């Protein structure tokens, strides 16, 4: 799994590649950015193709060393909420592979991350960020339609379609 990080997030990571890496996972790569809500560090992830988003609130310094593990756990948990069968979840976990970080970002995906950030600020407006359930917020973020280069997408359905491709392998 390849996570393209912004400069702000990369500064918090223990190691990342300064040269662009090539994605080897059949599920594709992700972008990630560091945001602050209620003076707490939070990371928002966005899948490059489907624009499926994940939200991790209230991270501290030691959490950044295990960011790939936290991403994987939240991603698999959101898929369980979407009723993905257990066997397919195991295939998804294997398909993700080891996490790698680089700084090669795409402006289109960063724009989608910015839109998700705006929507997120409305979702958690009346809550303190530490009171948010990251699973519920992530699922809610993926219920909204998005446009990508003039094409309408349903992030949850797009991700389920990508995952369904693993069924035949």
Strand order of the largest sheet: 4-3-2-1-5
End-to-end distance:
18 Å
CATH architecture classification name: 2-Layer Sandwich
CA gyration radius, whole angstroms: 15 Å
- What structural category arises from helix and sheet content? alpha/beta
What's the rounded overall pLDDT mean?
92
The largest β sheet comes out as:
5 strands, mixed
Percentage beta strand: 15-25%
Stretches where pLDDT is under 50 for at least 5 consecutive residues are none
Number of domains: 1
The CATH topology turns out to be Nucleotidyltransferase, domain 5
Give the strand tally: 7
Order of helices and strands: EHEEEHHHEHHEEH
Q: Helical percent range?
A: 40-55%
List the total number of helices. Answer: 7
| Dominant shape | globular
* CATH class type: Alpha Beta
Please tell me about this protein's structure.
By secondary structure, the protein is an alpha/beta fold. It has a single domain (about 1-165), classed as Nucleotidyltransferase, domain 5. Helix content is about 40%, strand content about 20%. It contains 7 helices and 7 strands. A 5-stranded mixed sheet has the order 4-3-2-1-5, sandwiched between helices. Strands 6-7 form a two-stranded antiparallel ribbon. Strand 6 (about 145-150) and strand 7 (about 150-155) form a beta hairpin. Helix 3 (about 65-80) packs antiparallel against helix 4 and helix 3 crosses helix 6 (about 135-140).
